[in-house]
Amino acid sequence: MASKTTTPDSAIPDQPLRGLRLLLTRPAQSAEGWAKKLRDLGARVWLQPMMAIAPLPLARLEPTLRQLARYQWILFTSRHGVDAFFEALSQQPPALHSLEHLRFGAVGAATAQALRVHGHEPSVIPEEPNAAALAERLRPQVAGQRVLFVRGEQSRGDLDRRLGPVCSFTSTPFYRQIAQTAWEGEVKARLERGAMDYVLLSSGNLARTFLASLTEAMWLALASGQVSLVAISSQAAAPLRSVEPPPSVGPGRTLRWLVASKATFEGMVEAMIADRRSG
Questions:
Q1: What's the pTM?
Q2: What angle do CA 118, 122, 126 make, to 5 degrees?
Q3: pLDDT in tens, the chain (279 residues)
Q4: CATH of region 21-50+181-278
Q5: At CA 89, angle to CA 176 and CA 27, rounded to 5?
Q6: What angle do CA 272, 273, 275 make, to 5 degrees?
Q7: Which architecture does CATH list for 54-178?
Q8: Helix, strand or coil for residue 206?
Q9: Among 186, 259, 244, 250, which Cα is nearest to 23's?
C-alpha cells in the first residue's frame, strides 16, 4: 500500500491544521474524502486503513430483500450500509426495486448524503450523529411499525435495545468489517519514531484494531506523548480507556488521547485545533 502525503503549496490564510502530521485509519472507501478536507486545512496526511469493508454473500441477503414490502422503515448508521444495501438490491428482480412505501432514517450527514446519491431523502437525521440520538428521534414515529436496520456484521445492538420494545425490529447485517493490521512501511517507521502528531480514530472497531496492531516501538512513542490519538466519540474512545500498555513500556505511562465534543469530522478537527492552541 502506497502512503499518501501532501504538503500545501502556499500559506492559505484559513489553514488551522497547517504543518500537522495526521494518520487516517478509516477504510479506504471513505478515507479519501476526509484526507482531502484535512489537506485543504493545511495538514499532511497519511493513510493506513485499519478496516476493509466487504459485502456479505448475496444469498444471505436475498431473504431480507424479498421481504422489503412488509417494512415501513429502513435505518442506516453508516454509508457502508447504504452502499451494501443498494448494491445488493440492484442484483434483484426489478419488481423489488420500488421503495416508495418506505421511510428512511440516517444516523448523520454522511449517511444521509449516501442515501441521497441513491435517490432517497431521509425522513429522520438526528442532530447528534449517534445511535442513541437516532433512536430517540425515531421512537414515537416507528411505534407499532415494522423496521429494518441495515448494519455491519460487527455492529453493536444499540438500536435493537432502544427500538425493539416499541416496534417490530429486524436487524440484518449487509456487510462485514475486516481488520487490516499489516503496516505500510513508511507509516510504520514514522509512527515508531513519533513522527506523527495525531492518529484519527472514527469508530470503536478502528480503535481496537489500531491498538491490537501496535508494535513495541509504537507503544513507546504513544506512551511518551509524542503522538496523540483523536477519537470521534466517547464510544470510539472506549477501547482507549481500558487498554494497558505492555510491561516493556514501563509503569505509569498511558496514552494521550482527545475526544471530539461533536461526533463528526468537524468535531475532530476542532479538537485538534483546540489541543494545538493549548499546547
A1: 0.84
A2: 135
A3: 333 444 444 444 589 999 999 999 999 888 999 999 999 999 999 999 999 999 999 999 999 999 999 999 999 999 999 999 999 999 999 878 889 999 999 999 889 999 999 999 999 999 888 889 999 999 999 999 999 999 999 887 789 999 999 999 999 999 999 999 999 999 999 999 999 999 999 999 999 999 999 999 999 999 999 999 999 999 899 999 989 888 888 777 889 999 999 888 999 999 999 999 997
A4: 3.40.50.10090
A5: 30
A6: 65
A7: 3-Layer(aba) Sandwich (3.40)
A8: helix
A9: 186
Three-state secondary-structure class, residue 263? coil
Domain residue ranges in the chain? 21-50+181-278, 54-178
User: Sheet holding 44-47: strands in order across?
Assistant: 44-47, 21-24, 198-201, 228-231, 257-259
Instruction: Please check whether residue 160 is in contact with residue 180, taking contact to mean a CB–CB distance below 8 angstroms.
Output: no
DSSP 8-class letter at 248? G
Give the E-state strand segments of the chain in sequence order: 21-24, 44-47, 51-55, 73-76, 103-106, 146-152, 168-179, 198-201, 228-231, 257-259
Helices 204-212 and 234-242 cross at an angle (nearest 10°) of 30
Give CA separation, 225 vs 46, 178, 254, in Å: 19, 29, 8
- Burial code of 92-112, b = ≥16 C-beta within 10 A, e = fewer? eeeeeeebeeebbbbbbebbb
Give the span between the Cα atoms of 68 and 74, in whole angstroms. 9
Q: C-alpha cell of 76?
A: 442506516
Closest to 231 (Cα-Cα) out of 223, 242, 243, 239: 239
Closest CA to 107 of 151, 61, 54: 151
